[in-house]
Amino acid sequence: MHATLYDFSPVVRMLLMGLLLASGPLLMVYLRNRRSTPLWRMHALTLVTLFLTFDLVLFGAFTRLTDSGLGCPDWPGCYGNASPLGASVDIAAAQQVMPTGPVTPGKAWVEMVHRYLAMGVGVLITVLAIAAWLGRKSKDGRAVMNPWWAAATLVWVCIQGAFGALTVTMKLFPAIVTLHLLGGYVLLALLTVQSVMLAQQQGVGPPISTVSVRLRLAVFLALALLTLQAASGAWVSTNYAVLACTEFPQCQGSWWPQMDFSHGFEIWRHLGFGQDGEHISFQSLTAIHFAHRLLAMFTLVLLALLAAHLRSVPGLRKLARNLAVLLLLQLATGLSNVVLDWPLVAAVLHTGGAGALIVVLVQALVSTRVQRVGQAHLANSTGLNA
Q1: E strand or H helix at 368, and its extent?
Q2: How far apart are CA 233 and CA 142, in angstroms?
Q3: Which of 326, 322, 328, 307 is nearest to 215 (CA)?
Q4: Degrees (nearest 5) of the Cα angle 212, 218, 220?
Q5: What is the C-alpha separation between 140 and 309, in angstroms, rounded?
Q6: Which residues pair with 6 in a beta bridge?
Q7: Which of 35, 121, 192, 277 has the most CB atoms less than 10 A away?
Q8: pLDDT exceeding 70 applies to what percent of the chain?
Q9: pLDDT tens digits for 366-384?
Q10: How far apart are CA 301 and CA 313, in angstroms?
Q11: pLDDT digits over 11-42, tens only?
């Protein structure tokens, strides 16, 4: 049956579901840290929210990879209901027309669970923003918390929710789905900044390491390149171009197969079609896949070199090790997507690995500062005198 794209009648019940899901983590953080300082409780809640946001990114990948993104073709509910239970008649009618989907009971539940989790994370981020604002100063007027990072995170989660709605109502428009995934990575980055800064304020995190301008610039460049690579991977996934090349290192028995980059990278178009309204060609899908593969090789080399340099800084050795391990995981899951015909677990882990890499690089940025000229001159003088 036809569903209205936007039906806000179940929004109150869905908000209550989000509050119910968020109440568990909130109660856990309070009970385990009730004798701690407000700053410590804030840090604990930020870590829990970061963990659940990472889980949400993984479940979003699962939703996309199981073709459940249109399991409920309206927003925010399912055929105007707060759960698929109330929409069973509409779901059954839609499944009768198209037995394999996109609307089936299983896919509807996957889609709605994703929305419930998103609302729960939204509630936690709202609580973080309120707590940061209320705790920004101590009783004697000293600055305690910086509320602007939490406020920016709250604004961004609202934007992310809007992209989630557009993902459904624009029928998995590739550009929107790609931006929605990148928005999830931005949320991870914002929460990582806050967790590291709160840890540093309390002296429980790793000390800030002084590094050269070149090394800090390299981290910035690596993060920018990784973001571009993540966008490329999202473009492969949203266009279902993974299986355009099913062998490695060659593709379709060639080192340079037939490709159509101009149509493959037309950004503003519907899923499966070009801007001219024609079905997207296999050569276009090959170009999408092959571009991601080439960029992945370059990204892998750069991040491996960065991990080696970070290892030379005593305070960053753990981050360097984490970066190296995640690179190996990305390589393994990326190759298995190609040669094993896109196994679901590997594909979900590949999306999560990209998010974890972003978290590590953001940690490296927040945990470092550039060595000042005066400090460098003093260090050199001390070394010469010694």
Answers
A1: strand 368-370
A2: 45
A3: 307
A4: 110
A5: 43
A6: 75
A7: 121
A8: 94
A9: 999 987 655 444 444 444 3
A10: 20
A11: 999 999 999 999 999 999 999 999 998 889 99
pLDDT number for residue 386: 33
**pLDDT of 212 above 90:** yes
Residue 44 near residue 51, CB atoms below 8 Å: no
Each residue's pLDDT tens digit, 83-141: 999 999 999 999 999 988 899 999 999 999 999 999 999 999 999 999 998 887 766 56
Q: Write down the catalytic residue from 111, 247, 266, 278.
A: 111
User: What is the DSSP code string of 168-232?
Assistant: HHTTS-HHHHHHHHHHHHHHHHHHHHHHHHHHHHTT-SPPPEEE-HHHHHHHHHHHHHHHHHHHH
User: Any idea which residue has 């409920």 for tokens?
Assistant: 72
Q: What is the DSSP letter of 78?
A: B
Burial class (CB in 10 A: 0-12, 13-18, 19+), 152: middle
Alpha-carbon distance of 87 to 201, in angstroms, equals 49
Q: Are 87 and 78 in contact (CB under 8 A)?
A: yes
Question: What are the residues facing 81 on neighbouring strands?
Answer: 78
Contacts of 275 (CB under 8 A, 6+ apart): 266, 268, 269
pTM of the model: 0.93
Whether the CB-CB separation of 303 and 323 falls below 8 Å is answered with yes
Q: What is the pLDDT of residue 383?
A: 40
What is the chain's mean pLDDT, rounded?
91
d(CA 2, CA 214) in angstroms, rounded, equals 57
Q: Which distant-in-sequence residues (6+ apart) come within 8 Å of 366 by Cβ?
A: 192, 193, 196, 197, 200
Q: Does the annotation mark 111 as catalytic? A: yes
Give CA angle at 242 (237, 245), nearest 5°: 155
